[in-house]
Amino acid sequence: MKTRIGILGVGGVGGYFGGLLAKAYSKSSSVEIIFIARGETQKTISKNGLKIVTDNDEIVVFPDVVSNDPQVIGKLDFLICATKTYDIEESLFSIKKCITKNTVILPLYNGVDAPERISVLFPENEVLQGCVYIVAMIVSAGVIKKIGTYEKLFFGSPTAPISILNKLQSIFANAGIESYLVENIEETVWEKFVFISALASATCYLDQNIGEILNDKKSRLFYVDLLNEITMLAAVKGLNLPQDIVMQSIQKLEKSPLDATSSMHRDLIAASKIELASLTEFVVNEGLNYEVETPTYQMVLDKLTLI
């Protein structure tokens, strides 16, 4: 019987990693890849496949199934979730018939609250923790562009059976995905959150890309202030993050394409809904809960709430 893997959200993250899985297992007798998509994305991929464009080449992949109809999707063994954080509940509710008590769910969102939110919906399921580092985006329906060479996927769970985790890691590795099964996954997810939350907040507030923030003294200091506030929050919460997490985050930024920006900033420029609640407001609210001052985050929240 095939292992059936659903990709919920065929955007930059889901499209890229789901595309690698679809390519690797296109003729597999053991693994089936299902893209859960709707509208123009569904129509385009069904007809022309999913195109992934990188700095060096491009590929076109066809999943085994592409649909938003639960009857067509069928029961899933693994579900990789990569929608926007504001769509978590609605998107999962739309395919609840595909999720059995044995379905293992891997969230790959920008925020840190997704596993808890998903567990409220599906309390009997194994909900892993995970995060990715990648610069990838939707160019048009059915077309994903990845910029740069830095791409990593981390996942893990303190409760899931090691056999399940090893199986998923093997599936990723065989697809050429640089993935890491991490024991202390909560700290790893928070390391990513520190990086992406501060970056998303800074790029949106300043309306600048990565290069502009790094090369402007005031903008760089603003970004560092955000990093200092969120790392203080993590420390008070008892998370064991690296002591040089602020410097590490800056170094990660310096390795990123200078003309790139955060996905939240891209959405803001496009006048689309943004992930303000998960990436900025969450930090402000947690700061209030733990009595940690976050004045820079509050400035960002106040400004972006009005947009």
UniProtKB/TrEMBL annotation:
Q: Where is the Ketopantoate reductase N-terminal domain?
A: 5-156
Q: Which residues form the Ketopantoate reductase C-terminal domain?
A: 184-304
Is NADP there in the keyword field?
A: yes
Q: Give the record's pathway.
A: Cofactor biosynthesis; (R)-pantothenate biosynthesis; (R)-pantoate from 3-methyl-2-oxobutanoate: step 2/2
Example GO CC term: the record gives: cytoplasm
**Reactions catalysed, as given in the entry:** (R)-pantoate + NADP(+) = 2-dehydropantoate + NADPH + H(+)
Provide the alphabetized UniProt keywords.
NADP, Oxidoreductase, Pantothenate biosynthesis
Q: What is its EC number?
A: 1.1.1.169
Q: Name one GO molecular function term.
A: 2-dehydropantoate 2-reductase activity
> Which GO BP terms sit in this record?
pantothenate biosynthetic process
Among NCBIfam families, the record links this protein to: apbA_panE (TIGR00745)
Q: Which family does it belong to?
A: Belongs to the ketopantoate reductase family.
Q: What does this gene product do?
A: Catalyzes the NADPH-dependent reduction of ketopantoate into pantoic acid.
Q: What is this protein called?
A: 2-dehydropantoate 2-reductase
Q: Which organism is it from?
A: Flavobacterium micromati
